[in-house]
Design goal:
P-loop_NTPase, ATP binding, binds adenosine-5'-triphosphate, four-stranded antiparallel beta sheet
Length: about 280
């Protein structure tokens, strides 16, 4: 890994500045020369076929993975140059909504939502914790009676809403949603989409939404990034095939983008058939 302190400072004013990032994992180049600036208040959907590097990109953005090359800056500060303490403090400005909600099974819903508050250096009084937990549960449309339950007693959609309440309780500046609607029926998916929009209406949060759900990408985002697997590109091709508003996806100049958003396999089917043929001899 190169020392990013030797790179010239050029603050772009973006909340997140992904500056020429490449990532090699197990000898395979997953991300190459990625440049993305995300301004405060934007909701960015990250789309692309399975294995193209969406999750690796998202983890690099929040400092869970260190890029092999380049740097990521949050609010002008390079994540790679932060001490562990600074990184932990910065991550407290992020909220994570995980695909499977990632709740603690042994804790009640109340304690799950209160969890980030319990990690604060200065513990707020219990009456304050209670007010905040109950308000956040109400904001995601969960009844008061849910507070005493355990995650196993709730439906998948309810658990996702608990995960959202927990992610928002510290009023994060950045919220990262990992497949927020996967596994939900269309109505519950739309409830989650509305909650994402509602959160943005309530305060100027910046959001990254990694999703396979084109309805979600179109509905909640004001910007879409479409990644393509690095190994299927020519060396000089950009790995981001689309960067623009969702309204322009349908008529994107790149055929691969149009095929993806319409759910058409196109030549991918031929490619896969050829791969199977070559394996089977
Ligand atoms: N920690 C890791 N170590 C080694 N390889 C990894 C690691 N994480 C991801 N990869 C590889 O990086 C590639 C991209 O993975 P990633 O999870 O980012 O894809 P994705 O676009 O999020 O896919 P999906 O939509 O299926 O979740 C895959 O080939 C994966 O095997």
């Amino acid at each position: 890994m190169i020392d990013d302190s030797i790179l010239p400072e050029s603050d772009t004013g973006a909340l997140i500045d992904v500056d020429n990032v490449s990532m090699v994992l197990n000898g395979q180049c997953i991300l190459q020369d990625i440049n993305v600036q995300i301004t405060r208040g934007q909701t960015v959907a990250v789309i692309g076929e399975s294995g193209c590097g969406k999750t690796v990109f998202m983890k690099t953005l929040v400092g869970l993975l260190n890029p092999t090359r380049g740097r990521v800056r949050f609010d002008g500060q390079s994540l790679g140059q932060m001490s562990q303490g600074e990184l932990t403090a910065t991550r407290r400005r992020f909220g994570f909504v995980f695909q499977n909600a990632a709740l603690f099974d042994s804790m009640t819903i109340y304690e799950n939502v209160a969890f980030p508050l319990r990690q604060e250096k200065v513990q707020p009084p219990e009456s304050d914790v209670r007010n905040r937990v109950m308000r956040h549960l109400a904001e995601v449309g969960l009844p008061t009676s849910a507070a005493a339950k355990r995650p196993a007693e709730l439906s998948g959609g309810m658990r996702k809403r608990v995960g959202l309440a927990r992610a928002l309780i510290l009023k994060p500046e950045l919220v990262v949603y990992d497949e927020p609607t996967t596994g939900l029926d269309p109505i519950m998916s739309d409830v989650i989409n509305e909650l994402i929009l509602d959160t943005r209406r309530r305060y100027p949060v910046t959001s990254i939404v990694v999703t396979h759900d084109m309805h979600t990408a179109r509905k909640v985002s004001d910007r879409v990034l479409m990644f393509f697997p690095r190994w299927r590109l020519e060396p000089d091709d950009s790995q981001i095939l689309f960067d623009g508003p969702p309204s322009e996806l349908e008529n994107a100049p790149d055929r691969r983008v149009r095929q993806f958003v319409r759910g058409e396999a196109g030549e991918r089917l031929d490619e896969m058939t050829r791969q199977v043929d070559s394996i089977s001899g």
